[in-house]
DNA sequence: TCCATATTTCGACTATATAGGAAATTTCGA
DNA sequence: TCGAAATTTCCTATATAGTCGAAATATGGA
């Protein structure tokens, strides 16, 4: 991941409403969620949400497809991974104390449960 | 880590100059680096840097101590770890595809070398 | 005590981000 | 073809962030 991409992804996530929307889309999985549904659940005006989704989208963190009258947004997992990798590699090179504790978190995620690895 | 802390850390890092300063401090290790030295290396006016260091500091990503006429800044590794954990736990819960690839990155960091784990 | 050094604080200006009303666009169904 | 539904685009107002000159503060040395 390039510096510019990392900066725009960080900026996109550094906003309460956008982080909430992104989380929701991550949880929604590959099916994704319609813009209107997100707006309803987060209780924000549709146009406000739309512009925030656009920012997340330009940052590469989500993408959209049309389904009938709805626009379905989905999280771009691979780019979130790339951002985390970027921060980890960048910050941990030669300084294992930052990243070492993350092994457990990452391992736990592999089975989606605590105490599985 | 609380939502508010994560947001302020993300916002602090979402700035080219601040990310560069933070990286430099991570590389500098526990010894840290004087404000003036950072400003010189990044080629930014001292007062501009100072306000950016202040933002990183309020976000909990760095801290400072006085040493004679200099102020030495150091990275707060534990809070960077907490931010990464927050993003990983938050985003990866139930969706291993984001975090699973990070195991390798985290493991590699443990010995500071590729292909060591 | 006085001066040079290191850094921060203050203040003012510019730039960018945010929010949301109103209108436009796209799609579906009647 | 018309109207309702879903979403975005346009626009404007307001708020927040960023920059840096100038002045202030703290320190060490002569």
Overview of the molecule:
- The structure is a homodimer of 117-residue chains.
- Mean pLDDT of chain A is 90; it is low at 112-117.
- In chain A, helix 1 (3-13) packs antiparallel against helix 4, helix 1 (3-13) crosses helix 5 and helix 2 (16-28) packs across helix 4 (46-58).
- Chain A has a three-stranded antiparallel β-sheet with strand order 1-3-2.
- The first copy, chain A, has helices at residues 3-13, 16-28, 35-42, 46-58, 77-92, 96-99, 102-111, and strands at residues 33-34, 62-67, 70-75.
- Chain A contains seven helices and three strands.
- Helix content of chain A is 64%, strand content 12%.
- Chain A has two domains: 3-76, Winged helix-like DNA-binding domain superfamily/Winged helix DNA-binding domain (Arc Repressor Mutant, subunit A), CATH 1.10.10; 78-114, no CATH class.
- With 117 residues, chain A is mainly alpha-helical.
- Chain A binds chain B through residues 3, 6-7, 10-11, 13-16, 19, 22-23, 26-27, 29, 77, 80-81, 84-85, 87-103, 105-107, 109-112, and chain B through 3, 6-7, 10-11, 13-16, 19, 22-23, 26-27, 29, 77, 80-81, 84-85, 87-103, 105-107, 109-112.
- Chain B binds a DNA duplex (30 and 30 nucleotides) through helix 3 and helix 4.
The helical percent of chain A reads 55-70%
Kindly state the mean pLDDT of chain A as a whole number? 90
* Chain pair forming the biggest interface: A-B, 44 and 44 residues
Report the C-alpha radius of gyration of chain A, rounded. 16 Å
CATH class of the largest domain in chain A: Mainly Alpha
H-E string of chain A: HHEHHEEHHH
Number of strands of chain A: 3
β-strand amount of chain A: 5-15%
* Separate helix tally of chain A: 7
What do we call the CATH homologous superfamily of the largest domain in chain A? Winged helix-like DNA-binding domain superfamily/Winged helix DNA-binding domain
Distance from N terminus to C terminus of chain A (CA atoms, Å) equals 29 Å
**What is the CATH third-level topology name of the largest domain in chain A?**
Arc Repressor Mutant, subunit A
Oligomer: homodimer
Structural class of chain A: mainly alpha
GO molecular function, one term (chains A, B): DNA binding
Protein name (chains A, B): Transcriptional regulator
InterPro entries (chains A, B): ArsR-like_HTH (IPR011991), HTH_ArsR_DNA-bd_dom (IPR001845), Metal_resp_trans_reg (IPR051011), WH-like_DNA-bd_sf (IPR036388), WH_DNA-bd_sf (IPR036390)
Pfam families (chains A, B): HTH_20 (PF12840)
């Amino acid at each position: 991941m390039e510096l510019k991409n990392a900066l725009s992804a960080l900026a996109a996530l550094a906003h309460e409403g956008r982080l909430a929307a992104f989380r929701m889309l991550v949880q929604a999985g590959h099916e994704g969620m319609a813009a209107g549904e997100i707006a309803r659940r987060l209780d924000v005006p549709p146009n406000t949400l739309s512009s925030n989704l656009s920012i997340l989208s330009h940052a590469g963190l989500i993408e959209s497809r049309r389904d009938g009258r709805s626009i379905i947004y989905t999280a771009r997992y691979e780019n979130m991974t790339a951002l985390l990798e970027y921060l980890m590699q960048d910050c941990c090179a030669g300084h294992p104390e930052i990243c070492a504790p993350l092994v457990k978190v990452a391992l736990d995620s592999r089975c989606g449960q605590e105490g599985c690895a």
